[in-house]
Task: structure prediction
Amino acid sequence: MSIQCEIDFHNLHRGQKVFLGDEPILENCKYLRAAIVQHNWPSQWHSRFPGGYVSLCIVRGEKTYRKYFDLQSQTVNEKPRYTFAATKEAEKIYLVKCAAEEELVEKSTTLIAEGKEMYANGNLWGAVRKYEEATRFDPSNVEAYSRLGHTFLKLGLYRDALGPLNHALTLTRDVQLRSRIYDDIGVAKSNSGNQAEALSSFGLSLKSKPVNPKALVHRAVSHSRTGQHDQAYTDVLMALKLRPGYLPALHLKTKLEVSGRIPPLGATLEENATR
Result:
């Protein structure tokens, strides 16, 4: 995110990203990228600051930190500009409040890495414990929640998986990640017997990422469980068109065909899908 570099108070507006200092040197404000101007003189006046003031607001999570700068005393060459002293004071606010939080974020990242290694080695419960601990250190870590939910899926704990997966959705707008999370939610709901909501989740996954053979096969399974074999077969054929030789799709295709529930339309669909 770029920083709006402004020097003159008169040019500042509420909500702007700001630079603190008489010269626009980014190193002077590297810790202030989350800072915004809340009020600026002369649009705001206060009895404590007869010469005008500016209020700097720094938001970290649910907490907001504010610092007021008196324009009458904090000037450069008798002009209303930010001073380097003010920069350092505002940096101090940020650093003191956030140093501990940054340490917790690092611990969370380390725990996730340990959980991934345990998962790869087949120690799923060990991975669960690591991911749960990671969420406690950093409640805003979407990877910790998404991996926790996915690991519950692998353990067959479908209802337990839904909590962290749904929470992970609230923490990210990343299209690819949301597609994977919606797919996992669909699997959890399908295996819990809620096929209607499962199909809705698979639809959202495919909306975020249409080229997704895995989600197509998962949706095909859900269609099959509700007796919608034509739709299941269509999804399987589409998955094979996107990824020829994809084993989960081939296995489900064979299962649907030998069941005798696929009408002749199935052959036509296959021909169309492979053209």
In short: The CA atoms of residues 216 and 235 lie 5 Å apart.
